[in-house]
Design goal:
Chain lengths: 77, 167
Amino acid sequence: MANPTRMEVNCTTGVVSEIELTDAEVAQREADAVIGEMEHAERVAQAEALAILKASAKAKLIAGEPLTAEEADTLII
Amino acid sequence: MPNTYFQLATVSAGSGGTANITFSSIPQTYTDLQIVCSSKTNRGTFNNDAINVNLNGSTANITAIRTFGDGAGGYSQTNRGVISNAAASTSVFSSTTIYIPNYASSVYFKPISAESVTETNGTEAYAQLHAQLWSDIAPVTSVALLPADGTLFLEYTTASLYGILKY
């Protein structure tokens, strides 16, 4: 089965080529995809954690209860 | 575009998509480079993906930091992907600008700055500022854009490379 292809444009000649990825490029892409998924999961977890902290901070403010340092950080710039 | 900007190349992915977009044999006669990109990848059921920017085909000696917001909060990560739309964000493509100053220098490392937004009117919509450093003094002769998670840029993904003169 052929490898996926990439587009390469030569900026000197203007020629656009469709080039099959080498096995090494395919392996690198798969390795990058693993890292990318980890980064995405980290981004989602970070957003979820911040949302939880902000909700807790808001509830405590309304109830007149003390905030933790982490909760206070969500309110202070 | 200002009159000091010169379009060197533009490319659009066809019906089968493309694994990456590479600008090669970049003339060394400009001061800076700018890439303007509208992209979407085939990353599964997600609204967003990221673009990895490789100079001269290198994946080594790269450090990065990005800050981004989604309307609910601001975040910071030391990851190298520049945010892009993905397959689940129906009919929308991200808008990205990538700037590479002093690309032809053989003395200094190569910084990259980028700003990007995912044009998704819904969850997981991001606006991102990105700073990256390729710790290599080699002049930049090629720039490759690759999906970070997906395997393809989808049809109609477009990237244009501009050479910029300082005057």
